[in-house]
Amino acid sequence: MPVLVPVRLPGPGRSRCARRAGGGGGATGLTPYRGTKPARRGGGRQWPPSRPTAKGPTMTRVIAGAAGGRRLTVPPGTGTRPTSDRAREGLFSTWQSLLGDLDGLRVLDLYGGSGAVGLEALSRGAAHVLLVESDQRAARTIRENARAVGMPGAEVRAARAEQIAAGPPPEQPYDVLFLDPPYAVTDDDLREILLTLRARGWLGEEALVTVERSTRGGQFDWPEGFEAVRARRYGEGTLWYGRAAPTRTDVPTDAPSASES
To answer: Superfamily assignment of 58-260 in CATH?
Structure first.
């Protein structure tokens, strides 16, 4: 009589290749599952769908400054990821090398996520930070984190980045702009936002701009009116640094290639 061997079938609603993709991406050498595009969840920061993400709230922290060590909540769900401590350290080190200290500067973060970058800027001396976040839950989390840090100067707006850019400009322009959008936001989308911000007076003279994008996406090309400064790669993400050009120029600037930090 033949022996019957039970076979375990994949659970409903999830294919075997999807489960394999959930086990890791570039770190393991596996090819990510690309059957669907990553869902856009407001202004929160997303990794590609192949990257495992912790379920439920997790924590990050303010690294340095007056509020150094304070713990920050990351919004629940898989749609929001904080910039890693390593990348954030590199970000602020570069800002310091280009600007000196942040004392008295105004910072605009158009995709706030958990608020970690903006609140880090406050901790390190920025006078004012505007954190924009289109996801309502994430915006609430940013407000809670701002209260937990206990430093004045943080303003949170629950709105889409392009709505803010097209709206009334501030009384004082911003000295520093940080954009770390969901990967569903294209480079063309970001260039349009940058052009709108500059045209409507959101950015100060030679404002420093940093864009974080997936390393897999290749070089980020700055729009007319912005000059490339440098780029730094941190694993799956690359930080592209530029400035609002002091005068209009028709000469294109070649962006530097990203170097591994």
So the answer is: Vaccinia Virus protein VP39 (3.40.50.150)
Residue 137 tokens, joined: 């839950």
Q: Indicate left, alpha or beta for 174 from its phi (over 0: left) and psi (-120 to 50: alpha).
A: beta
Q: Where are the chain's structural domains?
A: 58-260
DSSP 253: -
What pTM was computed for the model? 0.73
Render pLDDT for 136-171 as a digit per residue (tens, 0 to 9): 999 999 999 999 999 999 999 999 999 999 999 999
With tokens 């006078």, the residue in question is 127
Q: Which long-range contacts (CB under 8 A, 24 or more apart) does 19-25 make?
A: 21/49, 21/50, 22/50, 22/52, 23/52, 24/50, 24/51, 24/52, 25/50, 25/51, 25/236
Spell out the residues 6+ positions from residue 59 whose beta carbon is closer than 8 angstroms to its own: 71, 72, 73, 74
Q: What secondary structure letter does DSSP report for 224?
A: T
Find where tokens 């709105």 sit. 159
- Mind listing the pLDDT tens digit for each residue in 81-93? 667 788 999 999 9
Of 221, 141, 218, 209, the closest CA to residue 183 belongs to: 218
Distance CA 211, CA 220 (A): 8
